[in-house]
């Protein structure tokens, strides 16, 4: 289940974001989380399964009709189980069909791996 980030999840979100190679440096990680907390066009979501938080996905709403997935990370214990794909599909539903959802350059290869040929790559049905 996709849930919105809130301050009480800060340490969990930072831990998950720290698995992203570009977010390893603590100063940059803090700036990233601060951006999601302060800028309404940047939204962070966590993926919760029962009581465990397994992943995080961050999206930048660049316009009324476009959003870019900037960050996505899954707890290493749950990788290769489709959690990332589930997060992307749930995010697609959450933001609505009228919004074009695309991957950033940083996550493009991961996004393409989630949606192999013959599947829905551009997530506007």
Automatic annotation (TrEMBL):
<dbReference type="InterPro" id="IPR016181">
    <property type="entry name" value="Acyl_CoA_acyltransferase"/>
</dbReference>
<dbReference type="GO" id="GO:0016747">
    <property type="term" value="F:acyltransferase activity, transferring groups other than amino-acyl groups"/>
</dbReference>
<protein>
    <submittedName>
        <fullName>N-acetyltransferase</fullName>
    </submittedName>
</protein>
<feature type="domain" description="N-acetyltransferase">
    <location>
        <begin position="3"/>
        <end position="125"/>
    </location>
</feature>
<dbReference type="InterPro" id="IPR000182">
    <property type="entry name" value="GNAT_dom"/>
</dbReference>
<dbReference type="Pfam" id="PF00583">
    <property type="entry name" value="Acetyltransf_1"/>
</dbReference>
């Amino acid at each position: 289940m996709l849930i919105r980030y809130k301050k009480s999840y800060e340490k969990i979100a930072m831990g998950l974001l720290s698995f992203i190679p570009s977010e390893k440096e603590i100063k940059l990680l803090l700036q990233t989380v601060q951006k999601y907390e302060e800028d309404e066009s940047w939204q962070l979501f966590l993926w919760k399964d029962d009581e465990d938080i397994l992943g995080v996905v961050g999206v930048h709403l660049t316009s009324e009709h476009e959003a870019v997935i900037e960050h996505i990370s899954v707890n290493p214990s749950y990788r290769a189980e489709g959690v990332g794909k589930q997060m992307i599909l749930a995010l697609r539903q959450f933001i609505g069909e009228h919004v074009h959802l695309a991957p950033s350059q940083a996550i493009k290869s991961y996004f393409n791996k989630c949606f192999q040929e013959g599947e829905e790559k551009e997530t506007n049905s």
